[in-house]
Amino acid sequence: TNRPREVRFMSSSTSFRAKPQQKSQGNFKIARDAVVCLEAQLTGNVTIGSRTVVHPSARILAEGGPIIIGENNLIQELATIINRKPVEGEEEGFTMTIGNGNVFEVGSCVESPAIGDDNTFEPKSRTSRVTSASDRCVIGAACSVESMETIPSDTIICGAESTRHRRKVPLQTSNQQQLMYLSKILPNYHRLIKSS
Asked: What is the pLDDT confidence band of residue 9, given thresholds at 50, 70 and 90?
């Protein structure tokens, strides 16, 4: 009896979730109340502060030196924070330091050696390893900053030509409610990298 094998598909009401593989390797110090999803990629010597949330598919790569991330930061999907290995002719590796209350939105790529507090890196924005950010700066969507400088506090960089504006009155931003919500929801749907 050479009957064709019956193929059954799972109904849409049945869910299947593959067991996530940990892509991370290195020396991590993660605060107890930080939320770091197992699907995020961490490499090298990484320290993550209290109440920081790291989404799945985010990448924190400490290739050329340690990365120290402060408190209350939000690192969204596909965001990349990287401390690259120095290429020939560049100075030795350094410790990348990120302050408190920063938001790294979807697809942003940050190589800055120093980042202050309450900055926002919008989707697909980019900063190079020779650019640092002070406090309360906004790097707009798809903007790239590659000049050797420290971006002054309260600077907004936006538009196709990365036009700069300065806020006259500092904006009081807080991502506390969003961080609290994500800290409760993400563990229900994702495995976490254990705190140390």
From this structure: very low
